[in-house]
Amino acid sequence: MEGKVKIGIIRCQQTEDMCPGTTCFKVATKGKLAFADYGECEIVGFVTCGGCPGKRAVPRAKMLVDRGATVIAFASCIFKGTPIGFVCPNATQMHEAIQKAIGDEIVLLGYTH
Ligand code: SF4
């Protein structure tokens, strides 16, 4: 398929110790769940928030946009606390700061699956 939507994923740095992001990759590349509106997507980058309190997620999101992402998704570890039920306490602030930095033309999804 030509012109796949380019996706950047931001995940919780702490969850990195217990999750390699397999399901995020699967749902994005197959166009499922959070990506159902976009069809099969191309992942241009998969980064962490940089650790609490998540400030480093802002320049990292910009970096993903520079690499062509038109949709940025927070991995489900951030707002949903997947897989251990520990939601990021900084999620809303991080989401707002990133959206402000990347502008409204870039979609910022709050979950992946
Ligand atoms: S700021 Fe949130 S997403 Fe980032 S490491 Fe801390 S708990 Fe995880």
What can you tell me about this protein's structure?
The protein has 113 residues and is of the alpha/beta class. It has a single domain (5-109), classed as Rossmann fold. Helix content is 31%, strand content 18%. The protein is built from four helices and four strands, in the order βαβαβααβ. The chain has helices at 22-30, 57-66, 76-79, 91-102; strands spanning 6-11, 42-48, 71-74, 107-109. The chain has a four-stranded parallel β-sheet, sandwiched between helices. Helix 2 (57-66) packs parallel to helix 4 (91-102). The radius of gyration is 13 Å and the shape is globular. The model has no long low-confidence stretch (mean pLDDT 96). Iron/sulfur cluster is lined by residues 12-14, 49, 51-54, 78, 88, 90.
Condensed summary:
It is built from four helices and four strands; from the N terminus they run βαβαβααβ.
Q: Give the CATH class.
A: Alpha Beta
H/E topology pattern: EHEHEHHE
Can you list the strand order of the major beta sheet?
2-1-3-4
Report the count of strand segments.
Answer: 4
List the helices and strands and how they pair.
Elements: E1 6-11, H1 22-30, E2 42-48, H2 57-66, E3 71-74, H3 76-79, H4 91-102, E4 107-109
Parallel strand pairs: 1-2, 1-3, 3-4
Bound molecules: iron/sulfur cluster.
Iron/sulfur cluster (SF4) is lined by residues 12-14, 49, 51-54, 78, 88, 90.
Features:
113 residues, alpha/beta, Rossmann fold, four-stranded parallel beta sheet, 4 helices, globular
